[in-house]
Structures are given as structure tokens and as C-alpha cells.
Amino acid sequence: MAISDKIKQHRKNCKLTQKQLAEKLGVSPQAVSKWESGAGAPDISLIVPLAKALNISSDELLEYKDNLSKLTGEWIEKRRLCKTGQMPWSKLVEFDKVALKQNHMEGVLLLRLAEDMYKAAMETDELKLREDRLRWSVHYVHTYLERYPEDDYARSVYVEILVAQGRRSEAFEQADMCKDKDRVMELCLQGEDLKLHIQNVVSKKFYSFLWSLHRQELDFLDAEERVLKAVINDGNYQHFHGTLMMIEYKRACCYGAKGEKEKALECLRKAIDFAKKRDEEQYGKLTVPIFDVIPGEPEDMPSYSHQLYVHLEAVNSDLSVIYGTPEYEKLLGECKELAGKWQINELTTRIPIVANENMGEQQTTVLITSMLNTVITKDDFTGEVCEKLKKAGTTKILKTITIWKTGEIDLPSYDFRKALVEMDKANYGTEILMSNGNKKLENTLAKKDVEI
Predict the structure, then answer these.
(1) Burial letters for 120-144: b for 16+ Cβ neighbours within 10 Å, e otherwise?
(2) What region does 437 belong to: left with phi over 0, alpha with psi -120 to 50, or beta?
(3) Is 409 in a helix, a strand, or coil?
(4) Which of 75, 289, 356, 433 gives 20 to 30 Å between its CA and that of 61?
């Protein structure tokens, strides 16, 4: 039954005149007359109050459920014909327009029209016609999103249309508003950029899954290792050596808690081997196809052997069964030596370049003090190390080390004191040392055996 007949029938059932119904709705009797004759239709804003005045539901007034179900069935069939090339998309657009008009701009029909109009735009070779259809498609989807701003699917349709119009920056903005922005962002990208984006998304989810398995339970650790090696199946683990290192460390804790000394020590041995392997490698890339365009690990990542040393130095009751044993002390010493070598290398090679070219004093201080620890002692600062620092022109680095050294351990060696004096010549050393309140070092610098 048409909506015009429904209005007339239910008005009479309620024993209302056209004038009385018009008064209830705040419209003219002529408007009601047009509705009942089919010459016009009530505005969508009047559907609910009209249904209430006629003592029926809005769904019943519009025959919404039955009608929409029927339209959906027809739309699915026509869309199938369009996808198989048996019917042009422009024909489906005409069907959508009629359905939308009959159902008073129903939201789902509005979105269908936006999608189908976009398809119709992309099927034509006429530039002006394509632009017009894309413009209308944007209008329809934008209208829909004004009503339903949380609809991610509709926003992804909007993004796709904007990309087709060449409005890529706007497409990125819309994609960024989506809950599932990673998926929608794919619509904005192409070529190598798209490949990199997909690999980054997969990588992020892979890390997250591995982390969910990273528990101090042997079954979970075994599963984490199997998953990692199944995905990184070419043996080029790169930074995942760190994950393997921590798996072995946690296994050691599991075995230690059970009193199984030999197994705990064996796992720590493997953990150190993984840390050493990663620290000795260059900062290369993964080579498995699903991660092969992701850049290598940043060069400012801390040493894996240092990270492991921090864990081994901390008191862990699970490892108490092996503390103090010759085997444990040997492993701890090896790990400490590896960490110290890496840090000295960082101080004399990469960090001077970064600090001198790109960083201010405060940034340099943050970088170096975050790295320095008791793994490096005063004895590590040999004349050779200090010479390398001086040749690099790293007064900022020397200044930072000075503050750290005077606050953490005893006085540095003679050669390093000579390097500190070089800082005085650049108006760095003395005032910094005085502000640090280290009178002992002040007196040392004043000794006659130090050339100024």
C-alpha cells in the first residue's frame, strides 16, 4: 500500500478530518490533502509525529521493514549484474534514486547511492560526466556521514571517492578519523608506499601477538619461539634476536624457580649468544617477503648485551639457585664485557657524529647519560679513547661524561683528566665542574702534573 493510502486510511480510522490532522502536525490542510492524493509526501521530520497522530508505528506507516527488505533483494541482484558487466552502474544509480525518494532519504539507501554513483563515475570515459558523478557521490556520502559520523565503512567510501578526485590530503584526514585507520589508509596509498604501510601494520600486529605470549611460563615461551621462527623463516632475525634473548632469559627464570640449575645456566648461555650476535651485526633489514621493505632498526637502539646485563645484575629470586656459582659469575662477566665494548664504541664513533651535527648540549646530555652506567668504568677511558673523542671535537660529549663520572664513580684516569683540561680551553670544563660541587676533581685539575 502506498503511503498516501495509508495516511488516508488511518486518518479515517482515527476519525480525524484533514484539518484536525494538520493542526496536530502544525501544517496546512492543503499539505495533508497533497499527501493523501499522492501529489506530495510528508517531510522526513514529520514521519514520527504523523505516525503517532495516526496511532501506528513509523515502520508501519512507511512499510519500512518489508519495503527495505524487498528493495535490498532487488539491489543485490542488480549489483551482481553490474559487477559481471551485464548492466551499467548508471542503471543501478537510477534504481537507487527512486528507492531513496520513496523511502524519504533513508540512510542505508543514501549510502548505497553514494557507492553506486562512484562506480558509475569510474565506468565512464567522459571526463566531465565522471567529475559530475564523483561530485554527487561526495555529496551523498557526506550527507550520510552528517547523520552517522561514527560509521567507519561510510568514511572509507568517502576516502575512496576523495582519492579518485585527486584530493589525497583530504582523504588522509578522513582516514585518520576512522577507528580502523590502518585499513582505510590503504585506500590512500599506492606502489611502494602501500607495500610499506601494509608491512608496518602486519609488523605491529605480529609484535603485539608475540608480546601476548611473552609470559614467564615455559609453554607460552615455547609457543612464542615457534611463532617467531615460523614467520621469520629465513633465519635472518635481526632485532628479533632481542626477543629470542628475552625468551631464553625467561626460560632461565622458569628453570631456576624449579631448582634446575643446569637448564637455567644453559638458557642464560643462549641468551648471551643472541645478545652478542645482534650487537655484532650491522643495523640491517629483515629479508622475509612480508617485512622486506621495512627499514632496519634505528641506530640509537641500546645494546642488547647491555639490556641483558641490567636484567642479570638485578636481584631476581627465581635465579637465586645459580647466584654466586662460578658458571653464573663467568656468564655475568662475559655479558658485562660485551656491554662495555659496545658503549665505548658508541661513544667514540656514532654518537660524536650525531651530537656534533644535529644535537644541542641538553639533547647530548640526555642521550649519553641514558646510555652510561657502571658497565663503563674509569679504567675504560684509556688515552686512545680520549684521543678519539678529542679528534672528533666532542667537547659537548666530554662535558656530559664529566658530569656523569664525577657524580657516579671515583676520579677518572690521568689520560682522561688531560682530556677534561682540553674542555677548559673551550670554556666548558671548570664552570661545569664547580657547579657540580666536586671539589676533589677541582683540586685534581689544579695539580701541577696536569698540563694546562
Answers:
(1) bbeeeeeeeebeebbebbbebbeeb
(2) left
(3) coil
(4) 75
Burial tier of 155 (Cβ tally within 10 Å: 0-12, 13-18, 19+): buried
Which position has the grid cell 556521514?
Answer: 145
- Residue 63 — pLDDT band, cuts 50, 70, 90? low
Give the ranges where 26-180 is alpha helix by DSSP (H): 29-37, 47-53, 58-62, 64-83, 89-102, 107-123, 127-147, 152-164, 168-176
DSSP string, 298-345: PTTPPPHHHHHHHHHHS--GGGTTTTT-HHHHHHHHHHHHHHHHHHHH
105-122 pLDDT, tens per residue? 567 889 999 999 999 999
- Cα–Cα distances (Å) from 326 to 37, 89, 131, 246, 300, in that order, read 100, 79, 78, 22, 34
Half-sphere exposure of 260 (CA within 13 A, CB side): 11
Return d(Cα 247, Cα 217) in angstroms, integer. Answer: 10
What's 28's DSSP letter?
Answer: -
pLDDT at 125: 94
Residue 103 pLDDT greater than 80, yes or no: no
pLDDT digits (tens, 9 = 90+) for 350-381: 555 544 555 555 555 444 544 444 455 555 55
Residue 214's contacts (CB-CB under 8 Å, 6 or more residues apart) are: 220, 221, 224, 243, 246, 247, 250
Grid coordinates standing for 450? 696536569
Grid cell, residue 350, equals 656514532
Report how far residue 252's alpha carbon sits from residue 316's, in angstroms, rounded to the nearest whole number: 11
∠ Cα 259 265 269 (to 5°): 160
Amino acid identity, position 233: N
The pLDDT, as a whole number, for residue 218 is: 96
Q: What is the mean pLDDT of residues 265-292?
A: 88
Chain segment 9-62, per-residue pLDDT in tens: 889 989 999 999 999 999 999 999 988 887 777 887 888 888 889 888 876 776
CA pair distance 426, 405, nearest whole angstrom: 19
**CA separation for the pair 345, 365 (Å, rounded):** 17
pLDDT at 44: 73
Q: Determine phi and psi for 183, rounding to 5 degrees.
A: -70, -45
Q: Is the pLDDT of residue 133 over 50?
A: yes
